[in-house]
Amino acid sequence: MSRSPATVSVSHESLPDAADVLSAAARIAPHAHVTPVLRMASIDQQAGCQLYFKAEHLQRAGAFKFRGACNAVFSLDEAHAARGVVTHSSGNHGAALALAARTRGIPCHVVVPEGAVASKLAAIEAYGATLHRCAPSIAAREAEAARVQARTGAELVHPYADARVIAGQGTATLELLTAVPALDVVVVPVGGGGLASGTAIAAAALSPGTRVVGAEPSGAADTIASLARGERVTEFTPETLCDGLRGTLGAPNFALLRSHDVEVIAVDDADTIAAMRLFWQRGKQLVEPSSAIALAAVLTQPARFAGLRVGVILSGGNVDLDALPWR
After folding, report:
1. Which fold has domain 18-63+162-323?
2. For 9-45, how does the pLDDT look when each residue is reduced to its tens digit (9 = 90+)?
3. Does domain 66-156 have CATH number 3.30.70.2860?
4. What is the rounded radius of gyration, in angstroms, for the C-alpha atoms of the chain?
5. Shortest CA distance to 5 belongs to which of 27, 24, 21, 25?
6. CATH 3.40.50.1100 region(s) of the chain?
7. What pTM value is reported for the model?
8. Beta bridge partners of 216
């Protein structure tokens, strides 16, 4: 088993800050890719702004999720690491945690809901995790994860409400704003809120003038409803092709989005699919719907972004090629 770097400076239940994002960047540096920033002039012209795409679909395990998972796994002390880790995930976080755990040489358990994308489940298994299946509800996921944790003693690494995960996700924007300073806006997908809240922390610290805008499926717009109401909306049934954005907004994520005044745009699935296809046609890059939604948000609201320098986090590229949404 490899030696773990110093334990993360905050509890996994507390709110992370900029120092935690910087610590995460140092911790994951030996393991995570520094992904490129892509430019596409033809999409800029269509959007009416300058777009800088942070290519997290080229990250290890095919998504930004490896950042948070890697930070959580390598922040564990040796005694906790030896018992392994457990999570619940529809795909990308499970695969990322499995890869991070394999990299450190510890066990990994992933609770997966019925109906999850087959290619994502195959990736989780390929990285060596043990799968535990459950009903597709959030309650069923959490209950099964708790049972596995009680039986194995594994450390729970929540997909988005864990401070170690949030801090790790913030490193993508840390890299983006280091490579492209003084962006006007950074647009990120929003599901459980791990990426969006990590982005908000990093942007506020590195480029206070940069606004953070979230992109959320119209059929799973609990973040928009939560921010409007001033409290989390947890009772809803998601209806969206963006399988990675069906989770309920986490409590720490909600607090961070509110404190950083993050705006969120609702995007219809049809517009997301169009953006996914456009990105393939113009850039020869295949990203999943949960990633393409960030570009769709810009394209569907051109007046909001006209003439600006806009960072777009392309969150993942784990596409089921047997179920492309335009076939």
Report:
1. Rossmann fold (3.40.50)
2. 334 668 999 999 999 999 999 999 999 999 999 999 9
3. no
4. 18
5. 27
6. 18-63+162-323, 66-156
7. 0.93
8. 266
